[in-house]
From TrEMBL:
Name the record gives this protein: Aminotransferase class V-fold PLP-dependent enzyme
Family matches, as Pfam families: Pyridoxal_deC
Membership in a protein family: Belongs to the group II decarboxylase family.
MF annotations from Gene Ontology: transaminase activity
Keywords, comma-separated and alphabetical: Aminotransferase, Decarboxylase, Lyase, Pyridoxal phosphate, Transferase
Family matches, as PANTHER family: GROUP II PYRIDOXAL-5-PHOSPHATE DECARBOXYLASE, MIP05841P
Cofactors (names): pyridoxal 5'-phosphate
Lineage: Bacteria, Bacillati, Bacillota, Clostridia, Peptostreptococcales
Organism the protein comes from: Tepidibacter hydrothermalis
Length: 459
């Protein structure tokens, strides 16, 4: 083990490395130029039999790892939906690792357990949930949706967690839009519903689920002897940021006695803003919600959150003992989710939410949405470039008239400065810019627009 008296020194050294990285985060390339081969050559070693001084590893970390890491927090990172981790969130994560709690039960992290209950309460409050609601912090949206669907299955078919769903006479069907995230397919597969039972419903011109089509499919499936079980609303599709009409979906779910889950891994963060709250109208009627603190709440990875309108459903699906649900019994997170030993994702979320307050977070989310709107308006004015949709949240897809090859060469051309991703929206190859970074300035957006314009006029 490390000699304790030098631990301070290591910690100081490491904190210098982090400070320097954070200070220069927006300077230079976002994605390092390293190839896979380069990285293997630089990093692969044989299994170490003898140990060495930790300072050597810190040096190696500084020399080899840091320069070959993607600067997710850079102001010019406009790709995917990995938001820039906030500095308060980073402090919170460092603090969390420093005391390394495992709050699967109270004694494994008394303070961490209570902070998690508080964060779940705060999140529930933001979404309009009442006191019977509950939830748990998980690794991200994928596990959040998996956890929610496990709870939904037990609520819909009591005893199915015990007996499985091998022998049911009417197979259960699940509905979501064609634009749903791949994590939903995974969850449906893992839980034994079968991906074939996940019905991907047509979307309208705004990439929202087409409600008439949904109802037609449900009616048709009932006629075929299937049992419609759950609707998964999209609250911020990962490609275009489209938010389904949650209010209308909740009516459909009610009419057919189905569970409504909202995948708000990304767009759930829009609840922070007044405008966002309006497009998420009805979300408080959902039976469960996925929302990622590590997306639009600017908490460093990993931090996902699953909320359920009635926490008994989580308990019934994940309890480890035989005790029946008791709303007054203290919460042990072992009985509310999939993991046993688990890190506290609450401590860093608490750091971030308390440091900025909802007012500040909502300003950032609003300014991200404004930026996306501005960017889209300017894109529409450029000859040779086509906007694919009006932004609903903070993602904007567009393409060069010449198509895929030109899109790709533009992405390569700008990679020295900006990092955007390519995407495929309804069969069209396009470029996707996602403004979910608190460091991005309007001058940088103008610079990007200028580059798009120059590139379009070159050909
Ligand atoms: C990111 C995302 C997910 C998956 O969440 P992870 O945190 O990456 O596991 C699911 N759905 C949507 C809409 C997302 O944007």
């Amino acid at each position: 083990m490390l000699k304790l008296e030098r631990f301070d020194e290591y910690l100081d050294q490491l904190s210098d490395v982090i400070k320097e990285y954070q200070r220069d985060i927006s300077v230079g390339r976002v994605v390092p130029k390293a190839s896979r081969n380069d990285m293997e050559e630089l990093l692969f070693e044989t299994l170490p039999m003898e140990g060495c001084d930790a300072m050597n590893i810190i040096d190696e970390f500084k020399e080899k790892v840091v320069p070959n890491s993607t600067k997710v927090g850079s102001s010019k990172f406009l790709s995917w939906i990995i938001t820039s981790p906030s500095q308060a969130g980073i402090l919170g994560e460092i603090a969390n690792v420093g005391i390394s709690q495992a709050p699967f039960n109270f004694k494994a992290g008394p303070a961490a357990t209570i902070i998690e209950e508080m964060i779940i309460g705060w999140m529930g409050q933001l979404f309009g949930y009442k006191k019977e609601s509950g939830g748990i912090l998980v690794s991200g949206g994928s596990v959040s949706t998996l956890t929610a669907l496990g709870a939904a299955r037990e609520a819909f078919l009591p005893g199915s967690t015990e007996n499985g769903i091998q022998n049911i006479s009417n197979p259960l069907t699940i509905y979501t839009s064609k634009k749903a995230h791949s994590s939903i397919d995974k969850a449906v597969g893992v839980l034994g519903f079968g991906k074939n039972m996940l019905k991907k419903v047509k979307v309208d011109e705004f990439f929202k689920i087409d409600i008439d089509n949904l109802e037609k499919e449900i009616e048709n499936d009932i006629k075929q002897g299937l049992k419609p079980f759950c609707i998964i609303a999209q609250a911020g599709t990962s490609l275009s940021g489209a938010i389904d009409d949650i209010d209308a979906l909740s009516d459909v779910a009610k009419k057919y006695g189905m569970w409504l889950h909202v995948d708000g891994a990304y767009g759930g963060g829009a609840i922070l803003s007044k405008r966002g709250g309006e497009i998420l109208k009805g979300i408080e009627k959902a039976d469960s919600i996925s929302v990622d603190p590590h997306k639009w709440f600017f908490v460093p990875t990993e931090a996902g959150c699953v909320l359920v309108k009635d926490k008994r459903h989580l308990y019934n699906a994940y309890r480890t003992g035989v005790t029946e649900f008791d709303e007054n019994a203290p919460i042990n997170y072992l009985d509310y989710g999939i993991q046993s030993t688990r890190t506290s994702r609450a401590i860093k979320t608490w750091f971030a939410m308390k440091t900025y307050g909802i007012k500040k977070l909502s300003q950032v989310v609003d300014s991200n949405m404004d930026m996306a709107t501005y960017f889209a308006e300017e894109i529409e004015k450029i000859d040779g470039v086509r906007l694919l949709h009006k932004p609903q949240t903070s993602a904007v897809c567009f393409l060069f008239d010449e198509g895929a090859t030109m899109n790709e060469s533009f992405l390569i051309e700008i990679e020295e400065e900006f990092f955007l991703s390519s995407a495929n929206l309804m069969g069209e190859h396009c470029i996707r810019a996602c403004f979910s970074n608190y460091r991005t300035s309007i001058e940088e957006v103008d610079l990007l627009l200028y580059k798009i314009k120059s590139f379009a006029s070159m050909e």
